[in-house]
Design a protein that fits this description.
Elements (H helix, E strand, L loop, with lengths): L1 E6 L2 E6 L2 H14 L10 E2 L2 E5 L3 E5 L1 H10 L29 H14 L7 H7 L8 H15 L4 E6 L6 E8 L10 E8 L2 E9 L7 H24 L8 E5 L2 H8 L16 H8 L2 E5 L16 H10 L2 E3 L5
Parallel strand pairs: 7-10, 10-11
Antiparallel strand pairs: 1-2, 3-4, 4-5, 5-6, 6-12, 7-8, 8-9
Helix pairs in contact: 6-7
Length: 323
C-alpha cells in the first residue's frame, strides 16, 4: 500500500514497501519538475520527528516565531491557558484594541491548534470577539501566549504498535456562554492510543437541560465518528459499533428511546440522526465517569491539576520526554 497526500504543490507520501516509494518518486519526477526533500520532517508548519517507537508532531519553531512576532518572547509564564474564573463577554464599555492585531493573533493560534489541542477551547472562546475586541479579550489572548511560552517544546505523540480501535468522547458545558446562554460542545477521538480528532464549538441553539446539551454534543461527535469510519475504510479497516463515551445517563437514554416526549419533542430533527446510527450499529453510546471524560478539556476552563491530567492522557508531551 502507498498513501499520497497532496496539498497544492506540496506532497507527502509513505508506503509499506520501500520500492513503491522509489517507483512513485521516479514517475513523478519524470512527469513534473519537482525536487525530493527526503524523509518527512517539516510540512506546512508542522514539525515531524520519526522514531522507532513512534512519531512526534509539534510546532515548536512556529510557536517561537509567534511569540517573537507579538513581542511576547520575554513574557512571564502561565500554568494554564485560561483561568477558571474567566468569564468573557462583549465588554461594551471596555477599552478597544487594535482589531488587525487581535485577529492576527487569533488566526495564528487557530493554526497552532493543529498540534496543540490543549489550547483549542481557550482560542475558540477568544475567537468569538473578533468583531469588536476589547482590552479584556486581549488580556485573555495574551494569557494563552504566556501559557505557550512555558510549554513551547510540546506536541502530540503517536506511538507505534497500538490496536486499530476507535473511541469517541463527547461532553458539553451547559449554558457556558453567559451572553446568549448557549452551551459548548466538545469531542475528541482516540485511535488506538493516538488522538486523531478534536473539536470545540458553541452550540447553535439554546439547550433547556444538561441532557439536551449533552445529546446535541453526542450527535456532533457521532457525525465525526462516521466520517472517520469512512476514512479508515480507505486503509482497509472496517469498524462497527464505535464506542462513543458520554458522562450523562439521560442523554444516553434519549439516544435509545424513539418515543418523543416533553423533554425531546422540541429538539431539532437534525440532532436526532444519532439515533439512526445507534440502531444501525455504527455507534454504541456508553457511559463514562466524569473523571475519565477526555473531552472535558474542550468545553470549559479547568483547574491546573485537572488540566494537566487530561493533557497527558491526550498524548501531549514534552519533546525531551520522548522514549
Amino acid at each position: 500500500m502507498i498513501l499520497v497526500q497532496v496539498y497544492v504543490d506540496d506532497i507527502i507520501f509513505g508506503s509499506t514497501n520501500q520500492s513503491l516509494c522509489e517507483e512513485f518518486v521516479t514517475n513523478m519526477q519524470g512527469e513534473f519538475d519537482m525536487s525530493m526533500m527526503g524523509e518527512l520532517s517539516f510540512f506546512l508548519g508542522l514539525q515531524v520527528k520519526q522514531l522507532k517507537e513512534g512519531t512526534f508532531v509539534h510546532q515548536t519553531k512556529y510557536t517561537k516565531e509567534l511569540l517573537k512576532k507579538y513581542d511576547m518572547a520575554g513574557c512571564k509564564v502561565s500554568n494554564i491557558p485560561m483561568s477558571t474564573n474567566c468569564y468573557l463577554d462583549n465588554d461594551v464599555s471596555g477599552q478597544g484594541v487594535d482589531q488587525t492585531q487581535y485577529r492576527g493573533i487569533i488566526g495564528s493560534l487557530l493554526y497552532l491548534t493543529a498540534s496543540r489541542p490543549d489550547i483549542t477551547f481557550s482560542v475558540c472562546v477568544c475567537a468569538r470577539y473578533q468583531a469588536a475586541p476589547k482590552q479584556s479579550h486581549m488580556n485573555a489572548v495574551k494569557k494563552i501566549l504566556k501559557y505557550l511560552k512555558g510549554i513551547i517544546n510540546c506536541g502530540l505523540w503517536y506511538p507505534k504498535g497500538t490496536s486499530p480501535t476507535l473511541v469517541g468522547f463527547s461532553d458539553s458545558d451547559f449554558v457556558g456562554c453567559k451572553m446568549d446562554r448557549k452551551s459548548t460542545s466538545g469531542s475528541c477521538h482516540i485511535f488506538g492510543e493516538c488522538l486523531v480528532s478534536w473539536h470545540s464549538k458553541k452550540q447553535a441553539c439554546v439547550a433547556l437541560s444538561t441532557a439536551e446539551a449533552e445529546y446535541i454534543a453526542a450527535g456532533s461527535c457521532c457525525a465525526q465518528s462516521i466520517w472517520l469510519k469512512q476514512q479508515l475504510q480507505d486503509f482497509g479497516l472496517k469498524l462497527d459499533h464505535i464506542p462513543l463515551k458520554c458522562d450523562n445517563t439521560s442523554a444516553i437514554k434519549i439516544t435509545k428511546n424513539p418515543i418523543m416526549h416533553s423533554r425531546t419533542k422540541h429538539i431539532e430533527v437534525r440532532h436526532h440522526f444519532i439515533r439512526d446510527h445507534v440502531e444501525k450499529g455504527d455507534c454504541d453510546i456508553e457511559f463514562v465517569n466524569s473523571e475519565d471524560q477526555l473531552a472535558d478539556i474542550f468545553t470549559k476552563p479547568l483547574a491546573k491539576e485537572r488540566f494537566y491530567d487530561l493533557r497527558n492522557k491526550l498524548g501531549i508531551i514534552y519533546e525531551n520526554t520522548l522514549p
